[in-house]
């Protein structure tokens, strides 16, 4: 058997380039983790690139200025998600715009003249993200109005007089409000009525209306046009979610990304009619962000592939295919593709999934297997770069990645199939995934494990407590052990939104207790590996500590790994190396038979 380090290092050391953003002078910014964590890089037109920041903690985003060659970026401290903002001039070092380490700043938009940015900040109360204006010359931040709950700054009006503020009281609902810069007065910008999403508004240059993504009256997000306070008029509405939207500098074209079973497809649309005018070819993968070149002659985008970390591509006007602009490193050898497939659930429903098969001859007893469950739950497992899953496959373990009911990307009805009292049906999907694997002749039915993070970690704990005989091993990162203690300690800005999804901690206390795996910890029979970031503001460390203590009290094998400088996700390469190395060794001990 190959050593875990020899398998992991080539996968983990391959650097990524993601989240591109053009500045007004044509320089392109992106994030690259070549130095160990995501930092701001500047990419020249010839593809040459250089780092512009060098921090231990990861940069969360970078946004190019609309008036010069500078940018604004944000980063937190040790994964605590309390983003601080920085101005990056065209040349020289970054300058701090905020210095409030207990405050979360949510990115929004540049003022049309580039003199300020509109963002959100929860300085007044941790539970409420107020819209604020932050001058870039070092002037004081000004709150526009007080709001209740989490909000995002969605866009700044072309005349500079107002901003669009987005509220998302629950999953699959988002509303836009227009806030006057001078007075703070707020008026609805989207129609009344609950239950629809209104996202990614992009103003037309004359300010008479905006394009947006909405699913109003539909199963899927589509591209629509509307005047503030009016009703959206759909321009491009395929039977699949349109997930990204950016308007060309001249306002004549829209660049969009369509989610086709998890795979991204770039399309260019006529902005007036929604007609598809081009579909630039690109390799299969996932696009996270689009950005128009200031001259309008090209769209840059990142592309994350199952076999390679993120790279930056350019789709130029008149060219049938996009071209690679910047790769932070070479593609690692030995990475396996993700094959789309599906399996039947307990109620006969088809559950979409991806399968990663190990390379080489199948062992006599079949490959052991791992089921990886995504977080969310309003998320989708996408065929992008996962060095941990690739390393597991290289170890000789097949990996099944299901999009169990409740996942996004397959319509509103599918996403609602796990709501509240239906939550156990999603757990049954995990058991059904295991049953499908066990029926495959190339799989060792006695060697199947389950793994997940965050909500996926909760799914792992539910699977091993409700179906204890099915699993040879389990791995969970920062999963919820008990909903009561989760709601008591999670970030206050998350409580309302999470209660709408999972159940109210007071009104639905009995339901939430029945869905808390901590109460059934004695049923767990397989070895468990737990990892936790100690600054996690979403799933506090107590959740992991409770399940670990419960298993140790019952002499159930459990390994516990913590990181003092990580939050909800392991973002630093050295910490990921430690976590993934331990996971590979754990899975090798419990799944791999003597060869």
TrEMBL record:
The answer to whether UniProt assigns keyword Acetylation to this entry is yes
Keywords, A to Z, come to: Acetylation, Hydrolase
Its domain of life reads: Bacteria
Q: Which segments does the entry list as coiled coil?
A: none
Stored Pfam families: Peptidase_S9
All copies of the Peptidase S9 prolyl oligopeptidase catalytic domain together span 388-591
Function of this protein?
This enzyme catalyzes the hydrolysis of the N-terminal peptide bond of an N-acetylated peptide to generate an N-acetylated amino acid and a peptide with a free N-terminus. It preferentially cleaves off Ac-Ala, Ac-Met and Ac-Ser. Also, involved in the degradation of oxidized and glycated proteins.
What PANTHER family does the annotation carry? DIPEPTIDYL PEPTIDASE FAMILY MEMBER 6 (PTHR42776:SF27), SERINE PEPTIDASE S9 FAMILY MEMBER (PTHR42776)
Q: Report what the protein is called.
A: Acyl-peptide hydrolase
State the organism named in the record: Plastoroseomonas hellenica
């Amino acid at each position: 058997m190959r050593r875990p380090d020899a398998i992991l290092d080539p996968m983990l050391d391959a650097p990524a380039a993601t989240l591109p953003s053009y500045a007004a002078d044509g320089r392109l910014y992106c994030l690259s983790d070549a130095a160990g964590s995501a930092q701001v890089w500047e990419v020249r037109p010839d593809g040459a690139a250089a780092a512009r920041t060098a921090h231990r903690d990861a940069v969360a985003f970078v946004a190019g200025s609309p008036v010069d060659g500078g940018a604004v970026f944000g980063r937190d401290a040790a994964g605590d998600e309390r983003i601080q903002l920085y101005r990056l001039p065209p040349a020289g070092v970054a300058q701090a715009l905020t210095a409030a380490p207990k405050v979360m700043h949510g990115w929004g938009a540049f003022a049309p003249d580039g003199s300020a940015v509109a963002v959100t900040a929860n300085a007044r109360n941790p539970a409420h993200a107020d819209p604020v204006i932050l001058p870039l010359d070092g002037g004081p931040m000004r709150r526009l109005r007080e709001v209740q709950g989490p909000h995002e700054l969605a866009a700044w009006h072309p005349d500079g007089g107002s901003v669009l503020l987005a509220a998302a009281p629950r999953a699959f609902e988002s509303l836009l409000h227009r806030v006057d810069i001078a007075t703070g007065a707020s008026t609805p910008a989207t129609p009344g009525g609950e239950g629809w999403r209104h996202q990614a508004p992009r103003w037309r240059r004359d300010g008479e209306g905006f394009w947006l993504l909405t699913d109003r009256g539909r199963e899927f997000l589509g591209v629509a046009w509307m005047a503030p306070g009016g009703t959206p008029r759909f321009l491009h509405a395929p039977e699949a979610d349109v997930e990204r939207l950016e308007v060309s500098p001249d306002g004549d074209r829209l660049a969009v990304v369509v989610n086709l079973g998890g795979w991204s497809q770039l399309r260019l649309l006529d902005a007036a009619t929604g007609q598809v005018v081009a579909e630039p070819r690109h390799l299969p993968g996932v696009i996270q962000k689009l950005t128009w070149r200031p001259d309008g002659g090209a769209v840059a985008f990142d592309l994350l592939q199952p076999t390679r970390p993120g790279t930056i591509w350019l789709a130029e006007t008149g060219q049938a295919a996009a071209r690679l602009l910047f790769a932070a490193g070479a593609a690692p050898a030995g990475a396996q593709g993700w094959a789309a497939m599906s399996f039947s659930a307990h109620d006969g429903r088809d559950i979409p999934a991806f399968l990663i098969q190990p390379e080489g001859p199948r062992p006599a007893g079949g490959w052991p297997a791992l089921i990886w469950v995504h977080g969310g739950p309003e998320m989708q497992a996408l065929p992008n770069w996962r060095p941990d899953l690739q390393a597991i496959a290289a170890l000789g373990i097949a990996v099944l990645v299901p999009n169990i009911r409740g996942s996004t990307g397959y319509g509103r009805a599918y996403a609602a199939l796990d709501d509240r009292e239906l939550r156990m049906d999603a757990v049954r999907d995990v058991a059904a995934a295991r049953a499908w694997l066990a029926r495959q002749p190339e799989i060792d039915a006695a060697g199947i494990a389950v793994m997940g993070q965050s909500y996926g970690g909760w799914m792992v704990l539910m699977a091993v407590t409700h179906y204890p005989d099915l699993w040879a091993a389990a791995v969970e990162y920062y999963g919820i052990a008990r909903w009561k203690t989760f709601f008591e300690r999670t970030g206050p800005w998350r409580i309302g939104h999470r209660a709408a999804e999972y159940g109210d901690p007071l009104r639905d206390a009995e339901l939430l207790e029945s869905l808390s795996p901590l109460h059934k910890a004695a049923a767990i029979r397989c070895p468990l590996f737990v990892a936790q970031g100690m600054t996690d503001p979403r799933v506090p460390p107590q959740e992991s500590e409770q399940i670990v203590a419960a298993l140790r009290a019952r002499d159930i094998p459990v390994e516990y790994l913590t990181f003092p400088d990580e939050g909800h996700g392991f973002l630093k390469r050295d910490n990921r190396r430690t976590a993934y190395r331990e996971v590979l060794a754990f899975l090798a001990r419990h799944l791999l038979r003597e060869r």
